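Annotated sample (chain length 292).
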Amino acid sequence: MSGAPLAAGSVDRDWRTPLELTVLGAIWGCSFLFMRVAVPAFGPYALVEVRLLLGALVLLPFLWQARVQFPARRWLWLAPIGVINSAIPFVLFAWAAQRAPAAIGAICNAMTVLFAALIAFLFFGEKIGVRRAIALLVGFAGVVVLATAKVAGLSIGAAVVAGALAALLYGLGVNLVKRHMTGLPPAASAGATLGCAAILLLPMALTHWPAAPIPMLSWACAIALGVVCTGLAFLMFYRLIARIGPARASTVTYLVPMFGALFAWLFLGEPVTGAMIIAGVLILGSVAVSQR
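Output written by the structure step:
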């Protein structure tokens, strides 16, 4: 008799986990579509400021609830982590979205897992192993394929470099969070780092705020980017980590490029080229091998 509730709960969790992973992958895939639509009107700095501010506001109740766990000394790490893990990568992806299809940023984003392993090996003494080293080389080959490709006759190399640099900073941020924010409530920590990033980016956003009126569609995309793709998505991600662990939760990385390319094709008519498919297979394949 006692086994029946456990079995039901297990079935419920098994049903919810792939659904939530899929929804989260779709949400983060949408973020590249929203950036592509909104950034021409906002510019990278103003758009990212809106994203950071709204994401921080969504998570503010969690930070307020855990405020006693955030004494002044902790903010010495929270502020730089916010810049490294949010402000600069968001700006780089937004800048890339001005110059390349939405799928390009989504594909580059998948490199985060590989960069996190590389940084842990180079600077924090973690072992990398032969399999993961090979996966890194294959993933970088995918970036080279993507950077040398052309879409509609235009070079996208600069956008790929920006996206890869953003993924590199995400990888560094993952290691910093692991070493300096362990034990803190994740949602509250995310709210703190996003808030710090918003404050530090504010001068650039104000000096680069667009002079022309911003269309309602661009505002709608910016708001969705901040509220849904940042604030609510972080909550979903940390809920998954608490239930299934970080390794399984990180498999959402495989879904983001597919949804990013699909939505860009469906709603913006952006092409999916052979080079993009090859690069995506190389990068996602290397991530899959490194995570086994």
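Annotation: The first strand starts at residue 150 and ends at 151.
Annotation: The mean pLDDT is 88.
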